[in-house]
Amino acid sequence: MPRSRRCRQSAPSSLVLARYEKLIAAGELRPDPDQRRAAERLNQLQKELEAEQPGGLLGQLFSRKPATPRGVYMWGGVGRGKSMLMDLFHASLGIERKRRVHFHEFMLEVDALLREEREKQTEGPVRRVAKRLAKDLRVLAFDEMVVTNTADAAIMARLFTALIEDEGVTVVATSNRPPQDLYKDGLNRSLFLPFIDLVEEKLDVVPLNGPTDYRLDRIGDIDTWHAPMGDDATAQVREAFFRLTDYEPEDAANVPSGELDLGGGRTLFVPKSLKGVAVFSFKRLCEEDRGASDYLAIAREYHTVIVVGIPRMGPENRNEAIRFTKLIDALYEHRVKLFVTAAAKPEELYQKGDGAFEFERTVSRLKEMQSADYMARGHGKAG
After folding, report:
1. 288 inside domain
2. Nearest CA to 96 among 40, 139, 158, 129?
3. Is residue 199 part of a domain?
4. Mean pLDDT of 2-15
5. What does each C-alpha distance from 86 to 93, 127, 160, 277, 374 come to in angstroms?
6. Residue 169 host element (H or E)
7. Cβ 329 vs Cβ 295: under 8 Å
8. What is the pLDDT of residue 164?
9. E strands present in the chain
10. pLDDT at 364
11. For 313-366, how does the pLDDT look when each residue is reduced to its tens digit (9 = 90+)?
12. Which candidate in 16, 28, 171, 293 could, as Cys together with 92 as Cys, close a disulfide (CB 3.0–4.6 Å)?
């Protein structure tokens, strides 16, 4: 995963649109109208920001602080080139005061700074944190903005209002969701709604839902169902995780965990969670007392789910089999990509016991979920 990068020295810039066009000409990217529109908008922002530099046109004409350029919020399905365009923008931008950081990492930093400010018993801790974050910073670029934590949702409007309006920071972000779908169905979502208003007021919302899923190309040679369980199966789903998240395998120990808000004050611990990909054990999902609403929360939040340790089940495991059926129904209906390690093929998982006949529908869905047609579908409930 690209680590947080805070640049203090500016290098001679080349425009992001020119770099994008070179990738098209070299055959590394395919022509994509949505991508081009996003590249053009980032190109415009780059020009505005670089014009503020001491040698830039605005720096020559005006001595007062210039207005904060409008930011950009790029959203779209998996593998549509959002992170690639963000990387091009950050690499092309010829200013010193820029930072690119994964949103999850940024909010962990915010939480730590808030604790420090509250321990000082200072007034307005959120404003003070924004001031600390904005020191020597003109552009803040986020990859994969997603909001699952109630505490984060409650402070984001105040934090980003302070960053953008008070500190003059321009924000560029990517997300799998349009702004109005962020923290959808979250607890106390009314506290979060001012943040959505802020995004739509201060950032240009640019959709990327072109015809090519570049991330799918990366996993084209990896099967989704791995049986029997063992080192080889684990290595395969591990590789899928790294390819889907752009995380470096050698940095595996630092893959973040997280908590998914299930509503009603309940949360679900997610052992590994990054860029819309989550890893769970079968034991956590199906041996604990869970219902359809829990599985729907997972299906809405993640475009890819990796489930490890699916066992063969018999009459004594009827409850686990029923929960597994509900899990697969939710993932299937929301077109979630599924990778697993299991003790057997789908048709051999639950052959005897209450509901074994009905389980055949789950088997059919599991087989369809392995197909190229299913894997090419975008995340989200059909219709």
Report:
1. yes
2. 139
3. yes
4. 55
5. 11, 27, 19, 19, 28
6. none
7. yes
8. 96
9. 5-7, 71-75, 98-102, 139-143, 170-175, 203-207, 225-226, 258-263, 266-270, 272-274, 277-281, 304-310, 337-342
10. 95
11. 999 999 999 999 999 999 999 989 999 999 999 999 999 989 898 899 999 999
12. 16
Report pLDDT digits (tens) over 46-101: 999 999 865 555 444 454 556 789 999 999 876 788 888 999 999 999 999 999 98
* Rounded Cα distance, 110 and 53, in Å: 28
One-letter amino acid for residue 302 of the chain: Y
Q: How far apart are CA 307 and CA 346, in angstroms?
A: 13
> Does the pLDDT at position 7 exceed 70?
no
pLDDT at 284 over 90: yes
Mean pLDDT, residues 202-228 taken together: 82
- pLDDT at res. 380: 75
Q: pLDDT at residue 8 above 50?
A: no
Say yes or no: 192 and 327 in one domain.
no
Of the three residues 207, 233, 253, the one that is the final residue of a domain is 207
Tokens 């591990």 map to which residue?
A: 238
| Separation of alpha carbons 110 and 126, rounded Å | 9
CA nearest neighbour of 133 among 4, 257, 247, 45: 4
The number of beta carbons lying within 10 Å of the beta carbon of residue 214 is 18
Mean pLDDT throughout 362-375? 91
User: 207, 230, 252: which is the final residue of a domain?
Assistant: 207
> What SS3 string covers 98-146?
EEEEEHHHHHHHHHHHHHHHHHCCCCCHHHHHHHHHHCCCCEEEEECCC
Q: Do 40 and 95 fall within a single domain?
A: yes
Domain-embedded: residue 167:
yes
Q: Is residue 122 part of a domain?
A: yes
For residue 353, which of 324, 294, 313, 308 has the smallest C-alpha distance? 313
317 Cβ contact partners less than 8 Å away, ≥ 6 residues apart: 311, 350, 353
Q: How many CB atoms lie within 10 A of CB 225?
A: 20
What total of structural domains would you count in the chain? 2
